[in-house]
Specification:
The protein has 64 residues and is an alpha+beta fold. The chain is built from two helices and three strands. It holds the Pfam family HGTP_anticodon.
Length: 64
Amino acid sequence: EVLLDDRKERFGFKMKDFELIGIPLGIVVGKKLAEGQVELIVRDGLERIDVAVEAVADEGLKRV
């Protein structure tokens, strides 16, 4: 299941909800998108990894 959080809230507020809901994996599309990178956030330990857009699905499946 995919949840798009496009609310006009601060990033920290969205991250708090991400943790409370129990979503196991988050993808943050931000400034690095111009370089072909997104940030993958693994809720277990809140590990943050920069991943190439083309590899995000494979990398996410490894960590779920």
